[in-house]
Amino acid sequence: MVPEGGGNVRTFRTSADFMILVVLLLLVLVGAAVMYVINNTEKDERHQARVEELEQRISALSEDMIVLQADNENLQNQLRSANALLESKSVEEEIEQETEEVDLSYVPTFLPVSGTVSIPSPYTPENQYITFTTGDGSKVISAADGVVVYAGESVENGYSVKVNHGNGYETVYYEDNTPYVAEGMKVKRGDTLFQISGDSKVLKYQISYEGQFIDPYTIMDIDG
Questions:
Q1: DSSP secondary structure string for all residues of the chain
Q2: Fewer CB atoms near the end CB (10 Å): N or C, the chain?
Q3: Same structural domain for residues 205 and 114?
């Protein structure tokens, strides 16, 4: 380098070793930069792969969650159905238990006549009884177990027998013949109350429940 107007000239010399050192330093810096870029690229790739893997896991978990929700809903429906069935069975068992607790032998379902008998007359609100026409040798019988609370003459119907069955039911039998039973006697279903004989072949029959007359057809087993 020679400055203008300078009278003196200076000469600078650069050794080969210095240039080599500079070149090597540049190569090291370039290599470091390349390694940094490569390292970051590999990290980004690993990060991206990790992200994709997590996304796949999340997707799989979401699908599993949908399946589990469907299974849970199905189980809930089955549980509700089972509970409903158990409640239904419980109600049925309660009804059966209540039915078992009621002694049906005290419910007047039997026909009050044994032997030859006609189809009874209809029950009406005006005539709160039904009438049977019987044959020779027929008997008037108790329609259920109970206690005789009256046995004697009846002003309008010859004789009458009233049986209290102890569960709200009472039955009354009207016939012209003298009754076979007396007040206070316990009777079983089918026990004879009257023996039908002579010209007396008509039985008037009443059932009351809780003090109110009811239609015997609603409770009586007509085929019994």
A1: ---TT-S--------HHHHHHHHHHHHHHHHHHHHHHHHHHHHHHHHHHHHHHHHHHHHHHHHHHHHHHHHHHHHHHHHHHHHHHHHHHHHHHHHHHHHHHS-GGGS--S-SEESSBPPPPPP-SSS-SEEEEB-TT-EEE-SSSEEEEEEEEETTTEEEEEEE-SSSEEEEEEESSPPS--TT-EE-TT-EEEE--TT--EEEEEEEETTEEE-GGGT--TT-
A2: N
A3: yes
